[in-house]
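User: Predict the complex with beta-D-glucopyranose.
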Amino acid sequence: MMPRRASHQVAPLFTLVGVVLVLHAQLAFAKDESGVTTQAFGTHNGRSITLYTLKNSHGLEIEAMNYGGIIAAIRVPDRNGKMADVVLGHERMDDYVPNPPYFGAIVGRYANRIANGMFILDGRIYTLPKNDGPNTLHGGIQRTFDKVVWDAAPLNGKTGVEFTYLSKDGEEGFPGNLKVKVTYTLNDSNELIINYEATTDKDTPINLSNHSYFNLKGEGDGDILNHEIMINADRFTPVNQNLIPTGELRPVKGTPLDFTKPTRIGDHIEDNYDQLKLAHGYDHNFVINRHGNGIVLAARAYEPTTGRVLEVSTTQPGVQFYTGNFLDGTITGHGHVYKRRYGFCLETQHFPDSPNHPSFPSTILRPGETFHQTTIFRFSAK
Ligand code: BGC
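Assistant: Here is the predicted structure with beta-D-glucopyranose placed in the model:
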């Protein structure tokens, strides 16, 4: 029998440990009524990273974290109700540091390329860090939107999360204090709605996008060449050898970039066409057919074996269709090796290098204005 003295000491100790464990579990995993679950997901530069899981009434789930605003998972049903995660990604936050392919991230301040890491605005020359040969790709090197810690909070009364970030004047060479807000909302129509908002105190270029790599069969389950894709664009912006637009808006008709009718990605990807050779596949900005600034369908992708469909609608003027040409099997996720063309991106955006192309729709945000863009990813199966 245990001496009385000892049992008196042990009981409060157990109670204390129990309370600590329960509190810890509540802190590490909390769910509110709106379908948003939060989970501690590690730390970065001393700041805690939280994983937000948004779930709707059909069981569709989106996971996103405040490191880079990265969408880590999108679980959607196939035509038989079988769920799969349809974006390339990792299980642990640390695996996203670094994240050379920009899996799932918010890209900015300037998504896509700026030629020679340079632009002129209001008579001043601005130089940016170069990270893609002579170009600046996806905003620079150090404090780019994919690799900073955002402030985050679940949205009130919605299945959603809000990420905010202040990009300071001069950050990565860009002018102005830029206040950015990006929200992810999931509704019961199986739509993930991404809203981008920003204000500045100096004239500055801005181009924001999301860099998710989709494989509607399920991440890691082979390449994406068998997907059929429709892109609502009669023209694209051809590029030079540095993947910088030449300025031309070329009709897709008669080229392997004609996706105006649903076409298998693999059908023409190896055609002997200069633009495909330069980009090692599809890596081009398409000029979305639109009248006015509203939301229009930019693209639809269909995966025949699972029946999964992704529709992308947006307020943006362009969409970069990128077929994961630079994935080379050196990155793994969820135990799968991500090989060449294991994912495709539909990055809604302004045209690449717009600050150096006065004929392209302007990307300059001025004090007093608010930058607004919306992109909707809608999932279904047929
Ligand atoms: C670009 C690709 C690039 C990829 C990853 C895409 O937006 O168009 O050329 O390899 O991002 O950086």
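Residues 294 and 315 are 5 Å apart (CA to CA).
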